Structure formats: C-alpha cells, structure tokens
TrEMBL record:
<dbReference type="Pfam" id="PF14709">
    <property type="entry name" value="DND1_DSRM"/>
</dbReference>
<dbReference type="InterPro" id="IPR014720">
    <property type="entry name" value="dsRBD_dom"/>
</dbReference>
<dbReference type="GO" id="GO:0003723">
    <property type="term" value="F:RNA binding"/>
</dbReference>
<keyword id="KW-0694">RNA-binding</keyword>
<protein>
    <submittedName>
        <fullName>Ribonuclease 3-like protein 2</fullName>
    </submittedName>
</protein>
<feature type="domain" description="DRBM">
    <location>
        <begin position="22"/>
        <end position="95"/>
    </location>
</feature>
Length: 99
C-alpha cells in the first residue's frame, strides 16, 4: 500500500489490511509524549448502500517540521477506518525514525 507521511513515501508491500489494536488511543498518547497536536481524522470515502457502507479515513498530525498524513484501509465502520489510519501512521512513523 503506497502511503505518504509528510514528504516521505513509503511502500510497505502488504497486500492485506494492517491493524494495531487500540491504535487510535496509542497514537493519541504518542502525540502527547512527542508534544505534537492531537491527530486530526478526516473521512475520505463514504460509499455503498446503507446495509453495506464502506469508509476510508485519513489522519494528519501537524508537527514543527511537517504535516504527517496517511490514509487507512477501507472498513465497514468509521471507527474501524480511523483505527486503520492510526495503525498505518504509527507504522510509518516507526519506519521513518520519527519515533
């Protein structure tokens, strides 16, 4: 899944969904430790019939140097979509040595 965090590109080479349990809460705590603003979640996609809705959420974190941004995987609830985005940005932050 190609992703962008700030100005850096990442390609994790994963063909399936990636998720960290409680990623949204973990990201919130991480931002507090780093003295970054709280993550901002946006709904990027809301498609499908009412009984089969699909959502994609993004998350961004403004830092002193950059605005970190990433989109998550398609999920069946907004909460799951936000957790997916949080999972991906945590992974990208680890890969890019922000952590």
């Amino acid at each position: 899944m190609p992703t962008n965090v700030g100005r850096l590109d990442f390609s994790f080479g994963l063909n399936k969904s990636f998720e960290i349990d409680g990623a949204k809460q973990k990201l919130h705590e991480l931002c507090g430790k780093k003295k970054w603003p709280k993550p901002i979640y946006s709904l990027e996609k809301d498609e499908g019939p009412p009984q089969d809705k699909k959502y994609v959420s993004s998350v961004q974190i403004p830092t002193v140097d950059d605005i970190l941004y990433i989109e998550g995987d398609e999920k069946s609830t907004v909460k799951e979509a936000q957790n997916s985005a949080a999972s991906w940005i945590i992974c990208a932050l680890q890969e890019s040595n922000y952590l």
